[in-house]
Amino acid sequence: MRTDKWRPSLGLVVLGVLGIVATLPLFGLFLIRVYENGPIREAEAELIAQSAVLAAVTARAIEALPEPDRFLGAAAPRPPENARYQPIQPSIDLATADILGRRPDATDPATPADPALLSVGAGLLPVLERTQGVTLAGFRILDRDGTVIAGRNEVGRSLADLPEVAAALKGAFRAQLRQRVSDEPAPALTSISRGTRVRLFTAMPIRVGERVAGVVYASRTPSTIIRHLYGERVKLGLAAAAVLAAVLAIAGLFSRAITRPIHALVARSHAIARGNRAVLAEPGPLGTREIALLSRGLDRMEHELHERSDYIATFAAHVSHELKTPLTAIQGAAELMRDAQGSSADAMSADEQTRFLDNILADTGRLTALLGRLRELARADNPDIRGTTRLDAVWAGLRHAHPGLIVEADGTDHTVAISAENAGIVFAHLADNAARHGASSLRITARAAGEAVTVHVEDDGEGIPERNRASVFETFFTTRREAGGTGMGLGIVRAMLRAHGGTIALLPAGERGAAFAVTLPTTRPV
Predict the structure, then answer these.
(1) With b meaning 16 or more CB within 10 Å and e meaning fewer, what string describes 29-57?
(2) CA atoms of 365 and 371, how far apart (whole Å)
């Protein structure tokens, strides 16, 4: 027997899968952005460290000059009290930082550099060249006016107009990205790193006491992301393997929860269409809750269709049998009357003709009754299931339609999910059967239980013999065929109740009469 275990909904599965998929591009963007910023932040940190050393060395050389105060410029911002350390952290973010054009050429200074400072710069030039040979960074030492005192071919020229230099001359460290000028071909527009097209410039103020004596202006091209990714190739390989595993897991999840169950349902539907009823007992992979409900709904539909197909086949056989008997009798009587008219020797008397005509009329009446009940059964099989009604209204209609029966009802305040018309059909047939079998009273008791109301209907008529109890709900079964019974009343009742989600059952026989239990839902059946 199939158990109802918890299953994830299709919406939950799709949400989970989309959540996993959404993290993949975000992770990729984050990874690329981290590695793009990584080389630039690393280059900035190295330039800060190198510039800090060169600034300290230059400050020491200026302090050793005669009258060093005459080489000092603007007052530097005062550090916080008791601040022993004043670290400068890398701050360039490639995603938000402005990238200026190439660095402008140096200009003529307003005031020539002091010869004493030029001599200091000349003494520092070997240090700059050796540092550049190892770090690949370019350095310029500027005086308090922004004039280059050390730095190859720009000595004596001014860089004071650069915004980063202007900020450093006021005592603030600045870093700036500029477009890279290179003898190599420009990188393709589809390059994965903007870092290959920029150069980083930093301006570190040279402090002597609380004043600015100059600037260490450094520059370097950051390392490319490709070199960093190559250095992290093992970690990237593991990340790629994790992404691949996630993709395979997603594919397996979709296959297990959605694809395979749907294919199984398609295969089962094809097998059922070919008439293979054995597959209805095979649950197969059900996957999500929605697919499990769909599978069970398909099973119920197929069971209903097969039952309806069997019912139609049996019903057609019964109808043909029931219609054939009166039609054969009518045909036989008509043929005899026609033959009697053609021969004076076989001529019928008036009594004989009347008897044959009475037989024809009786059989015609039976056909009419059968056709009427067939129409009622068709309506009962496909009724309008909308509407509700109170049972007390049904009992009042029952008393009016059957004045010869004493109807005693208990439990009249219940409301059931069936229209008054359809409820009247159900209980009218039960009352009609009771009256036709000698009942003078009908005892009705209604009790609610959960979402249903059970109605016991008992009469004081002849009752149902034990040998006939198993056949009372069979269509066309009747013990009153000669009296015009069609055997379709209880079939109509059962069809009407089934359409509304109700049932009818024959209760054990009492001392007298017959008793039925009718169950009606209080809410609309799904």
Answers:
(1) eeeeeebbbbbbbebbebbbebbbebbeb
(2) 10
Neighbours of 377 (CB within 10 A): 20
* Sequential pLDDT tens for the chain (526 residues): 455 667 777 667 767 776 777 676 666 655 555 566 778 888 899 999 999 999 999 999 999 999 888 889 888 887 766 667 788 888 888 777 888 988 999 999 988 999 999 999 999 999 999 988 898 899 999 999 999 999 878 899 999 999 999 999 999 999 999 987 665 555 443 444 444 578 899 999 999 988 999 999 999 988 766 666 666 778 878 877 887 787 778 777 777 777 778 777 777 777 777 766 666 555 555 667 777 777 777 777 777 776 666 556 555 555 565 566 677 777 777 777 777 776 666 677 777 778 778 777 776 766 676 666 566 555 655 566 677 888 888 888 888 888 888 888 887 678 888 888 888 888 888 888 888 878 888 888 888 888 889 989 888 888 877 777 777 777 655 655 555 455 566 777 787 788 888 888 888 876 678 888 989 898 865 5
Q: How far is CA 154 from CA 140, 181, 296, 380, 449, in A?
A: 8, 17, 86, 106, 101
Q: Transcribe 399-434 into DSSP letters.
A: HHH-TTSEEEEE----EESS-HHHHHHHHHHHHHHH
Residue 230 CB-half CA count within 13 A? 5
Query: Contact at 8 Å (CB) between 397 and 500?
Result: no
Exposed (0-12), middle (13-18) or buried (19+): which is 290, by Cβ within 10 Å? Answer: middle
194-214: burial string, b at 16+ Cβ within 10 Å, e else: bbbbbbbbbbbbbbbeebbbb
Residue type, 157: R
Map 38-71 to HEC letters.
HHHHHHHHHHHHHHHHHHHHHHHHHHCCCCHHHH
Torsion sign across C-alpha atoms 386, 390, 395, 396: negative
Phi, psi angle pair for 296, to nearest 5°: -70, -35
Angle between helices 10-63 and 289-342 (to 10 degrees): 160
Strand partners, 202: 175, 218
Measure the CA–CA gap between 46 and 132, rounded to whole angstroms: 12
The span from the CA of 365 to the CA of 445, in Å, is 36
Show the tokens assigned to 201: 């410039």
Q: Which three-class secondary structure state does DSSP give residue 362?
A: helix
Total-model pTM:
0.45
Q: Are 65 and 116 in contact (CB under 8 A)?
A: yes
Residues in contact with 357: Cβ distance below 8 Å, sequence separation at least 6, in sequence order: 333
Distance between CA atoms of 375 and 241, rounded to whole angstroms? 70
Amino acid identity, position 409:
A
